[in-house]
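Figure 2 data, in text form.
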Amino acid sequence: MRKLIAKTWMIIGLIIVLLFGVWNAVWFILTNNRYDDFLKAVPKSKFGNHIIKKDGYVYNVKRPDYLSFTGNLGINNPEARETLIIWPLIDGSYEFGVRLQKDGIIYELSLDEQMQPVDQNDKQTNILIQELKPEITALYEKANSMWKLD
């Protein structure tokens, strides 16, 4: 009876180790496939992070942390204090966030793939997005030319 219990626990332990190994392999393959082109476009700096400055804009790529699927791409116009953050999703789509300054006020907004507010019912955010559309479009176009988002 004792041998049977010990054998059962060994089998359960082995299954857990195998499942963890499979999870690691899946994570590694998916994140490397998703972020490979982004990392090639923004090579590693001498400090070990993926960041470059080009035409007055700063581009960066943050790989997902271990066993996380959430990394991001960023483009920043330091002079105008404008930033677009892009979260590549494993399914091939993106989520966007923008941080802009207007009249001394800093706005942080979540956008969908059409650069529209995620919350369509928020009228104030919709108006603000329309006012800031040129800045948002400029950031997106720069990001798209760097990473081929379309």
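Caption note: The first helix runs from residue 2 to 41.
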